[in-house]
Write a structure and sequence with these properties.
There is one protein chain. By secondary structure, the chain is mostly helical. The protein has two domains: 99 residues, Protein Binding, DinI Protein, Chain A, CATH 3.30.910; 70 residues. A two-stranded parallel sheet has the order 1-2. Helix 3 runs parallel beside helix 6, helix 4 packs antiparallel against helix 5 and helix 5 packs across helix 6. The protein is rod-shaped, with a radius of gyration of 28 Å.
C-alpha cells in the first residue's frame, strides 16, 4: 500500500467521522460596513499558518439530494410506492363494498351470525392495515440502504478531493457562519460522484 493510498484511507475515515458530527466554528463578528473592513475571502486568506487554504466546506445534504444516484433511488421508490398505492386503493374499494353488504344483511342475520361476519370484516381491515405498514417499512428500509451506499461513496469522494488538494479539514457548510466560495467543494464532489455512481439499484422484492 502506497503512502498516498494510506493517507486517503485515513482521510476517508476522518471525513466519515466528521460527517457524523457537528462542527462549530467560533470567530469575531464581521461588520461588513466598518471602515477598512476586509472581505471574507481576505479574512480567510489571512488565517495563521495558511490554514484557510487547507480547509474546505461541503453542502452534504445538497450533494446527496441532487446527485444522479439519489435521484435514481427516489424514482424507483416513488414507482414502487405508486404501485402499492394502486393495490391499496383497490383493497379499500373492496372493503367499502363489504361493509355496505354487511350493513344491508344485518337485519336478516341473527346476532351470532352478524357478530361473526363483523369479526371477519374487521380481520380483513386489520390485514390490510398490516400490509400497508409492512410495505411502508419495506420502502423506508430499502431507501435507507440505497442512500447509505451513496453516502459511503460520497465520503470516499470527499477524501479523494481532500487528498488531491491538500485539505486537512472538511466542514459542514450549514455549520459555518461565513466561508469564502472558493472553499466550497460541493459541486466538484457531486460531479465526481455522478460520474462514478450515476445510479443505485434499490433492493426491492418483486411485485406479486
Amino acid at each position: 500500500m502506497t503512502a498516498r493510498t494510506t493517507r486517503r484511507a485515513a482521510l476517508a475515515r476522518g471525513v466519515g467521522l466528521a460527517l457524523l458530527g457537528l462542527v462549530v466554528v467560533a470567530g469575531a463578528p464581521v461588520h461588513a460596513q466598518s471602515q477598512g473592513a476586509t472581505s471574507s475571502e481576505e479574512r480567510l486568506s489571512q488565517t495563521p499558518d495558511g490554514m484557510g487554504s487547507r480547509i474546505a466546506v461541503i453542502d452534504v445534504q445538497a450533494v446527496l439530494r441532487n446527485s444522479k444516484a439519489a435521484v435514481s433511488i427516489q424514482t424507483q421508490i416513488d414507482a414502487r410506492r405508486d404501485a402499492y398505492q394502486s393495490e391499496v386503493t383497490e383493497e379499500e374499494r373492496a372493503l367499502r363494498e363489504a361493509e355496505q353488504d354487511l350493513a344491508q344483511r344485518r337485519a336478516a342475520l341473527d346476532q351470532s351470525a352478524y357478530e361473526q361476519a363483523a369479526r371477519s370484516f374487521q380481520d380483513r381491515v386489520a390485514e390490510v392495515q398490516r400490509t400497508v405498514q409492512a410495505r411502508k417499512r419495506e420502502l423506508d428500509e430499502a431507501f435507507a440502504r440505497a442512500m447509505n451506499e451513496v453516502r459511503q461513496k460520497m465520503v470516499a469522494t470527499v477524501a479523494q478531493v481532500a487528498d488531491e488538494r491538500g485539505y486537512q479539514v472538511v466542514l459542514f457548510k450549514n455549520q459555518i457562519v461565513i466561508a469564502a466560495k472558493s472553499l466550497d467543494i460541493s459541486e466538484e464532489v457531486q460531479a465526481r460522484l455522478d460520474f462514478t455512481l450515476p445510479k443505485v439499484d434499490v433492493d426491492l422484492p418483486p411485485l406479486e
